[in-house]
């Protein structure tokens, strides 16, 4: 199968990265060890290439109204230079993808879908744009995305990027809030810096024009070395996001899942209204409204292992028999790892509502053996 290469592909090869296919892209899985890269992000900083993520520009006088129609969030209320986590759903309420949308200028928005779903999201947005004065364009080929994540991320950024009041959107790096963004300079080039991430740590995601991606990557590696920064791959990114209780499309989210099933009902704005104050009919609204009132058939929960063997995606969550053996199945694991930070296995799983309460003792069928787990509130890890 042919895969797409990141603008930073040769940099990864030169660093000795183990590459893997992910969402149709050839991306670094790890450079040294999963554990070392994970710990670097928790203790200092990690440098990630996220150029496999999609980039869709939405512009025009009705851009906000269009996004209100196409997505579950309320983008008419999103202030400039802010970002919002949201989802795009089908008519039946199933999640086509989760994404971040940036409001980066008057009548200008920028949507970032997951790599594997970028084409699906683009097609859906183009279809939903009918009747709106809006332009929807795929601009991902011209951009690279680089993330610096970890407690020393801000110090590292200051070594490489400079603030410029003319392009900052009225915000300084000191004052940049979570899910806000600003323009900064890398030499003579302008980059968009957002205080966002997928690791549970403080950090930044930097959008840069593709021709300048290699220079920025190298500058961040060099500037971050005294602070303990290391390049980090997809394996560490996955264990970090799981500790932070963040869902992954294809694991916790898919077209059979609604935002309510995934515990993300808060991002569905059923009370959106049109300019005249009437309820706004966005795609999937009727199905989502019905789901919001219905008793859940399954609940996404965190599981903390009290043994040593980790659960993995697809493993059955079970009750145990009186003699401690595998019993009735009550759910399915969606993601699971041995937590490097916490020192015990953690997992996310969909389970039946009657076993979803915190503290419920369950087990996971790990190759025929009932491994003990306890239902636990997420996130598993909080910084600070």
Structure report:
- By secondary structure, the chain is α+β, with helices and mostly antiparallel strands.
- Among the domains are: about 5-55 and about 140-245, Gyrase A, domain 2 (2-Layer Sandwich), CATH 3.30.1360.120; about 300-375, Beta Barrel (Elongation Factor Tu (Ef-tu), domain 3), CATH 2.40.30.110.
- It has 8 helices and 21 strands.
- It has helices spanning about 10-15, 35-45, 65-70, 120-130, 155-160, 215-225, 235-245, 285-295, and strands at about 5, 20, 25-30, 45-50, 55-60, 80-90, 95-105, 110, 135-140, 145-150, 160-165, 180-185, 190-195, 205-210, 230, 300-305, 315-320, 325-340, 345-350, 360-365, 370-375.
- It has a 7-stranded mixed β-sheet with strand order 11-12-13-14-10-4-15, sandwiched between helices. It has a 6-stranded antiparallel beta barrel with strand order 16-19-18-17-20-21.
- The protein is globular.
- The N and C termini lie far apart (about 45 Å).
- The model has no long low-confidence stretch (mean pLDDT about 95).
């Amino acid at each position: 199968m042919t895969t797409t290469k990141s603008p930073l592909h040769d940099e990864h090869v030169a660093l000795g990265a183990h590459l893997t296919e992910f969402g149709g892209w050839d991306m670094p899985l790890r450079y040294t060890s999963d554990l070392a890269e994970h710990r670097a992000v928790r203790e200092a900083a990690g440098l990630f290439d996220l150029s496999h993520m999609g980039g869709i520009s939405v512009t025009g006088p009705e851009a906000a109204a269009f996004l209100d129609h196409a997505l579950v969030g309320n983008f008419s209320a999103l202030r400039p230079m802010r970002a919002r986590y949201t989802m795009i759903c089908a008519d039946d309420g199933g999640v086509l993808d989760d994404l971040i949308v940036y409001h980066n200028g008057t009548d200008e928005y920028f949507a970032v879908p997951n790599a594997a779903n970028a084409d699906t999201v683009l097609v859906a947005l183009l279809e939903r744009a009918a009747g709106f004065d809006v332009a929807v364009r795929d601009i991902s080929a011209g951009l690279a995305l680089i993330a610096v994540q970890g407690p020393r991320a801000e110090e590292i950024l200051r070594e490489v990027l400079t603030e410029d009041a003319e392009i900052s959107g009225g915000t300084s790096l000191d004052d940049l809030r979570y899910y806000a963004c600003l323009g900064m300079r890398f030499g003579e080039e302008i980059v968009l810096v957002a205080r966002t991430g997928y690791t549970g740590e403080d950090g930044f995601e930097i959008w840069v024009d593709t021709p300048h991606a290699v220079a920025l990557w190298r500058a961040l590696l060099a500037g971050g070395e005294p602070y303990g920064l290391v390049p980090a791959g997809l394996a560490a990114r996955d264990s970090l996001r799981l500790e932070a209780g963040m869902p992954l499309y294809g694991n916790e989210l898919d077209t059979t899942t609604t935002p309510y099933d995934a515990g993300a009902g808060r991002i569905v704005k059923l009370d959106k209204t049109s300019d005249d104050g009437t309820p706004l009919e966005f795609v999937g609204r009727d199905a989502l409204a019905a789901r919001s009132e219905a008793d859940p058939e399954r609940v996404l929960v965190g599981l903390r292992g009290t043994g040593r063997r980790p659960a993995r995606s697809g493993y059955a969550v079970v009750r145990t028999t009186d003699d401690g053996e595998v019993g009735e199945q009550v759910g399915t694991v969606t993601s699971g790892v041995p937590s490097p930070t916490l020192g015990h296995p953690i997992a996310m799983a969909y389970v039946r509502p009657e076993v979803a309460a915190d503290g419920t003792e369950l087990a996971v069928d790990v190759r025929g053996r009932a491994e003990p787990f306890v239902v636990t509130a997420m996130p598993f890890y909080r910084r600070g």
